[in-house]
Write a structure and sequence with these properties.
By secondary structure, the protein is α+β, with helices and mostly antiparallel strands. It has 15 helices and eleven strands.
Length: 353
Amino acid sequence: MTGAAEGMAEAPAEPRDAGAPDFWVASGHHLVDRADHGGLVVTDEFLKAYLARPELMPPAEACPVERGLHARLLAAPRAAIPPDEIALIADADARENFGLFLAFRDHLLAHATLEAAYLALLRGGMGRIPPLFVQHLTHLVARNAFDGIRDAHVLRAAECFFRPQRVTVHEGSLLLADEEAIALHEHDRQHSPLLNMLGGPAVTELEVLKPANAGGYAARSDAHDLVFDLTDPEHGRPALARAMAIWTRHLLGFTPEFRPVEGFENARFTWFLALDAEATAIGNRLWRGEALAEEARARVLALFTFTLPDHPRILSAQRGGQGFAILAMDPDRLMRIKPQNLVAGLPLAPDQG
């Protein structure tokens, strides 16, 4: 699978500012290098950060093999480690954790950039790569894709690519709160009689991102504590559409122009994208022309239309065709965007996808 990260010849979809404030510092983007063409390059410091995680840090009771292996990797993070050495680790969990880390490390080192490694995962499957590692990789690639973007609403929308969101309907608005942040808030609320007395959805006690507070987004971006109003006519679904465009262009060098719509009005489509697992089943029914049950219809959060570009990476028969994209939440009101679908879900030519 090839991608724009290897050549990045086309102009970005959004104005970028080299002096824009730093954001998403927790992605670890300061631990990697950037190649001349813009893709991210693995460094020893980046690999060492994984070795500092509690899953890989040997406890006091760890066996000599585990401690020795960890020390060797800290000194030389790219060192070749034969499987039979991993097998000598006494603790089964440690054996598994080191094996998973080394498989991930080797996958990253086998590609020129982290973007290329990400695209290769989309082509060949995740294999033994833990979902947590894929989430980290998505976070880091997204930080590079959105580098220099100042629009806080676009950046907050892009958080949905690597952070699940809890959906709340309040006073006619669809409010998205970071799942982890809202869970912590609800925990505090349950243990505070005063907060419990306030009533109303917990999300209403959090701050909604608006133009008035957008200037402070970067400083609090790693807290993921700003609520995103998906129904804001200017900064909701349109911001998500722009985030989708930036992500696709960064990885493939082109983008369909996503446009939020309220409905399809009997339009003729040649392709569709499901932005999450729930949307797949809903989109398949729409594609077949079937009516949606009210319960399924209520889970649809956003609809977009787009035109497949006249680009060599798109199958020739599909170029210029009209498509639609659908975003939904699950029955527990969680929204989990799968950003890989914005790449793997397009009709890419065999030698390009």
